[in-house]
Amino acid sequence: MDQNYLSAEQAKNFISAVFHGLNMPKADADLTADMMVRSDLVGADGHGIFRLQQYAKRITENGINLHPQMKLLQDAPAIALLHGDNAIGHLVMHKATMLAIEKAKKVGIGWVGCSYSNHAGAASSYANLVAEAGLVGLYLAVGSANHMAPWGGIDMLLSTNPIAISVPTGSGNPPVTLDMATTVAAYGKVKMKAQQGEQMPVGWMIDKQGKPLTDPNRSHEGMLLPIGDYKGYGLSLMIALLAGCMNGAAVGSKLVDFNADSQAVTNTGQTVVAINPDFLGGTAHLIADTQRMVKELKASRTLPGVTEIRVPGESSARSKSKRLTQGIPVPPGLLKALNECAQLAGVKPLEF
User: Fold this and answer.
1) Which of 117, 247, 286, 351 is the most buried (most CB within 10 A)?
2) How many other CB atoms are there within 10 angstroms of residue 350's CB atom?
3) Which residues have CB under 8 Å from 191's CB, separation 6+?
4) What was the pLDDT predicted at 191?
5) What is the CATH number that goes with domain 4-183+226-282+315-345?
6) Residue 241 pLDDT more than 70?
7) Helix segments in 162-268, DSSP class H
């Protein structure tokens, strides 16, 4: 069967129509759709339109507030705490990111924490928004379900807890962007494997006896492995403290698994930081030296069999360029899920 594709505009329009059909205000539906498609364009397929069915389920079961009254619980020149009022995470994080950028332009840095948010898609979406404003972006989040145990343990008390850092490289150039989960694989990739009827590679998950788990349909029986063994565990914990505990958001045993519960308030915690290079060595110097560093890395010698040295964010930039032309892939399993969303929302299904 030939692969089906949606243009970015078609994907945005479809997502927005589904959300609006489920009674989300049109402006909010449009903004959420735009942020979701950002994930698809850079190849973060587990965080974009793939999540629409899960979001729709939470909306229909009143797990997401469609008419939030977000408010600042704390607000100082360089730092703030935003209460998301259980809005869909994309709206909360977009508001937080814009506020962080505003603060950084004024005083050099903007640190905005969030509580009572929800899953917000790919971490890079928000770090890159900051970089697009000519600033350095940092994003931390508590994942939306516990899938990792402390190093050496079996009780799942930690999540994939992603981190993203984005550094601008000048007008018209993609930023250098690191976006990674603190587990070997994000749980969205496990869900995609299940939807597509594929097995997981050895090394993603283990069962409670420490043996490899490769069947994504049995993922509930096991746990994701941290990157770098105990180092990934430590990084996940520190992100939980900074994006969760410090914001009054849920962590550890208080975390709600949004994969299993579509009704409970998740109180997801996230933090976005914007840093203004002009208050340090200067934006021009940062961009010039970053470009020099990238050129040195790209030109460096390789091991046998290696054809190219890549820098963080390069694959995402290539994916974006390709998908803006070719479109976003929609495999059969995803198409079926999307058209179930269309039926639920009373909108026209996708046809190819």
Assistant:
1) 117
2) 17
3) 46, 50, 216, 259
4) 87
5) 3.30.1370.60
6) yes
7) 187-195, 230-243
Burial class (CB in 10 A: 0-12, 13-18, 19+), 58: buried
**Of the candidates 9, 90, 2, which has an alpha carbon nearest to the alpha carbon of residue 323?**
9
Place of tokens 């250098």: 176
* Count of C-beta atoms within a 10 Å radius of residue 312: 17
The token duo for 196 is 């597509």
Q: Do 169 and 129 contact (CB within 8 A), yes or no?
A: no
In the predicted model, what is the mean pLDDT of residues 227-243? 97
Strands laid side by side in the 163-167 sheet: 71-75, 79-83, 109-117, 268-275, 136-141, 163-167, 176-180
pLDDT digit string, tens, across residues 152-209: 999 999 999 999 999 999 988 999 999 999 999 988 889 889 988 999 999 999 998 9
For the chain, give every domain's residue range: 4-183+226-282+315-345
